[in-house]
Amino acid sequence: MNRKYRKTIIAGNWKMNMLASQVKPFAEELKTLNPRAKWCETVFCVPYVMIPAALKAFKDSRVAIGAENLNENPKGAFTGEVSAAMLADLGVKYVIIGHSERRQYYGETDISVNKKVHAALEAGLNPIVCVGESLEQREMDITLELITLQVKAALAGVPAEKMRRIVIAYEPIWAIGTGKTATAEQANEVCCAIRTVIRKLYGARIARATTIQYGGSMNEKNARELLAQPDIDGGLIGGASLVPEKFSAIIDAANQE
Ligand code: 13P
Mapping DSSP to helix (H, G, I), strand (E, B) and coil, where does residue 66 land? Predict the structure, then answer.
């Protein structure tokens, strides 16, 4: 973390878990555990159908709500899809784009990720752009090249003045939901490489101000060490974001002195 230059953001990604009826009790419990947010910004990215319940449940707290996906088109005949404008209209602030589960199961590519980034920015949403390598790619020693490509593709055509709204989440695929976390050094190495890409594209000032999260089995036990790394500015958390005590402990780790 580096609070002097950029925001620390702790974001939960509920994925296809929880029910709308569980949101209020969850929020009440979290608010009791974490009455004050201190420095870090807290976000819950939730399934579309839970967005109204989440906005209501966290209305009087400093927790922002995000979506887990969006359609790249502004509007029209796309049955079953949800646009950036629809999300912004509800009061959603963030949207996860290009999560590895969407790339893997729903055919999302670097090109569609880039289109979604533009759609989100156009509607005033803050994209959380996910990048990450598979175990095979790590073993082939192509991680940094691959991540560089993913970041460059995601940001293609994004003007410098919109970069302050972009968050990048480094999520090694082999660490998601597996209980296998990247070591703090491994995670920091890639987050640092991402910052270097941004520096080359946009200059030192913007690179220094960009929030880069780590995601992949982050939990209440390893969060402190991961967040103590200079280039890790927060977390994108799956499993541990479903349990108020665990998520609250991660927020505490982000608020460490
Ligand atoms: P886990 O924290 O369950 O590994 O999930 C990480 C993730 O995919 C967040 O987007």
Answer: strand
Task: Tell me if residue 6 falls in helix, strand or coil.
Answer: coil
Atom of ligand 1 nearest to the CA of 169: 10
Q: Is the CB of 237 under 6 A from ligand 1?
A: yes
> Is the dihedral angle over the CA atoms 169, 233, 45, 164 positive or is it negative?
negative
Is 118 known to be catalytic? no
Rounded Cα distance, 66 and 167, in Å: 12
Q: Ligand 1 mean position to 104 CA, how many Å?
A: 14
**Of the listed 68, 101, 171, 220, which one is catalytic?**
171
- Residue 31 tokens read as 């608010």
Contact 54, 44 (CB under 8 A): yes
Q: What is the pLDDT of residues 100-142, one digit of tens each?
A: 999 999 999 999 999 999 999 999 999 999 999 999 999 999 9
- 223, with CB counted inside 10 A (0-12, 13-18, 19+), is buried
Ligand 1 centre distance from Cα of residue 252 (Å): 19
